[in-house]
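Render AbiF abortive phage infection protein in 3D.
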Amino acid sequence: MLSSRGLHDSQSLLPRALLGIGYFRLSGYSRYFQVNPAKGGNNFQPGVDFAKVFDLHQHDAELRNLLLEGLAEIEIALRTILIAHTCAIGGPGTAYLQASSYRESYDKTGALLRDKLLADLWADINRSKEAHVVHHRTESPKGIPLWVAVEALSFGVLSRMFGLLDSEDIRSRIAQRFGYSSPAHFRTNLRSVTVFRNRCAHHSRVWNSRVRQDVPRMFPKLIDEELVAANYENTPWGVIAVVADLVGQVRGDTTFFDAVSRLVPRGGLYWKGLISLSSE
């Protein structure tokens, strides 16, 4: 079917790719090479070889794996600093389960966000099969210390915990650990990388994908002097820049950004699909 639309397969990669990756996943990359897929023009442009499509997919997989490594470091650091700043020394470490620890903030339907957060905290804790969590859940079902529970909490729940913390001072100190002077700006970008983490974890396409919700807030320090603001607006590169900066704050160096730069050299089709959505 693909050959009838003009797609060449000079390296005989297509049969194995269809079995191992699947047509639908590959179609997100192949659309770029079609005449006008948005209007039903699904024939391929003259001379297109499947090797180009396959290379984009493989490059994306490598980048996702690298980003997941960095996102894991951010998540672990967030767990650690939440414990450090919300658990009193010598205390039970259970204040995070109290409604008074969180602000009275409401969603668009008028529902209290902290109620939803507390329900999700308990859901994560009760879902965990980790031995240490099960032990504390059994021995002290109403008071599991955060340093135990945190291992069972999702990145999304951790992000919401930070955003709803009632103490402005605690939120400021946590934000500063990650290089942000504004807790509100850190909350926005933390939410952005949390959503992006789900995209990577589910092996979704990063290349040439539009960031439609939870768009990060960009700052001069995040924008490369060789690029322009538009390269960061709703593009994958905007979120990647935030991830790299946060990992840099955790590590105290630029090794992660350097690794991303080596994997994604500037110029070429893959780079273009990270900094521009003109080909979407």
